[in-house]
Amino acid sequence: MKRIFLNRRTARLAGAAALVLAALASMVAGRNPVAEVIQATSARPPARAVVAPASDIDLARLERTAPAAAGNDPFAPKSFAPPPPPAPVARASAPPQPPSAPPLPFVYAGKVTQDGKTEVYVTRDDNLISIAPGESIDTEYRVDAVTASSIRFTYLPLKTLQSLELGEAGG
Q1: Contact between 142 and 128 (Cβ < 8 Å)
Q2: 133: which residues sit within 8 A by CB, 6+ positions away?
Q3: Is the pTM here over 0.70, yes or no?
Q4: Does residue 64 come out as left (phi exceeding 0), alpha (psi in the -120 to 50 range) or beta?
Q5: Taking 90 as the threshold, does the pLDDT of residue 141 lie above it?
Q6: Taking burial as the number of CB atoms within 10 A of a residue's CB, which of 69, 96, 99, 106 is the most buried?
Q7: At what angle are helices 8-29 and 33-41 packed, to 10 degrees?
Q8: CB–CB of 132/121 below 8 Å?
């Protein structure tokens, strides 16, 4: 058997090649070879931490601070949509109209003349009501006058005059 002797230069090159191959193999395996080498060479015992007495602890530093402004929150929802257009400004329109009386809820039903006395009847919804001048109906309307062609009412909440034309003229 023949012995192969390596000179110094060849031995160094072979050692460097072995180191490079070991580093590449550890990178492929997912380890950091530099950290392993540093950990292996530092064989010093860890220094002991000095624990301060309980009276020297500043408890105010352990309290939570107020949250950061909303603009600095990295987890706040963000929208990349353009902002909505500003709401149109309402233009000065005509002043609101004063309240008005609702339409008359009465329908002329007829009149009856008996013994020289005339009674006039109107209906509201399905109710038949006998009316005479000066009467109030449900605290909303007052009968002002009954003529041959119309009945005049006053809508009491607004003191508005309204007129109901009769279907039959004088008879």
Answers
A1: no
A2: 143, 144, 145, 146
A3: no
A4: beta
A5: yes
A6: 106
A7: 110
A8: no
Q: Residue-wise over 45-54: b if at least 16 C-beta within 10 A, else e?
A: eeeeeeeeee
Q: How far is CA 96 from CA 89, 93, 144, in A?
A: 18, 8, 30
Of 110, 113, 133, 135, the C-alpha closest to 123 is 110
Confirm if 147 and 131 have CB atoms less than 8 A apart.
no
Q: DSSP assignment, residue 157?
A: T
**% of the chain beyond a pLDDT of 70:** 76
Whole-number Å distance between alpha carbons of 142 and 151: 11
Residue 62 — φ and ψ, nearest 5°? -85, -15
Can you read off the two tokens belonging to residue 72?
């600095």
DSSP-derived 3-state class of residue 78 = coil
| CA separation for the pair 139, 158 (Å, rounded) | 12
**pLDDT (tens digit per residue) in 21-41:** 888 887 777 765 555 555 555
The CA distance from 145 to 49, in Å, is 107
Specify burial of residue 142 (Cβ count, 10 A radius: 0-12, 13-18, 19+): middle
